[in-house]
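Below sits the subject:
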Amino acid sequence: MKNKYLIGLLLSCSLFILGFLIHGNIALYFNLSGLLIVCGGTLTASLISFKYEQLVIVSKVLISAYKRPIKRETEIINILIDLSIRSRAEGILSLQSQENEATILFLRRALGCLVDGYHIEQIRDILNTEMYFFKLRRENSERILRAIADYFPAFGIIGSVVGLITMIGGIGDTSIILKAIPIALTSTLYGLIFANFFFLPFASVIKERTNRELLMQKIILEGIIAINSEMNSVILKTKLESFLTPSERKETLVPYAKIRERFNIEKKEEQKDLEDRPD
């Protein structure tokens, strides 16, 4: 699946670049003045709008989203089922390799509440609070990326205005006009590419990963509470698999014959036919 994703990404990027190459020279699209105006202006606006520490946190979250794989929902469910049956040392120790991943930290915190003997209401309250502020922090990172994405086209327009002013000032001098035209056109191009090709997709990546992690944290919350209540492992498995899509579940559906037998459907239908039959 990962190889298919990389192949698709490379092909789509190749198509994008090919569009620039078909009817022109790629060197025409590079202009240092326009690039400095767009990137420098956006960086300045970002530093004015947000604290440096916030930007560092956003970069770390973004790097983690691409670099660190996230555990699948089925893996978390299997760990919780193992815990409900017995505490397998290898099942817990296997989490150490990803102990800095957000979902694993949430699981360790939940297990800590369970081991310390907190009541169910206290565990639910603590973990729901943890989930709420985790979501707020991630939404803040997403908001910063979307704000930066809005800055790029704005400074692209500023670069275009600078180029137009230079063109007007050089009326009568063809060399000045020819130098100003690339600044006016490439600045807008850079602003649109940086916004739509990089920063808006970065924000979408964080949003998608946050939703997945919140889902797994909800699974962990329900699993830990069920374990604390000493719920039967089979019932726990059925409950937690409700969070999965039908294609990810390994359950076998109950046959219709067994359903009819359990609820006496055939007998009820026959009795209804007898009642509806005229004398």
Residues 34-246 form one domain.
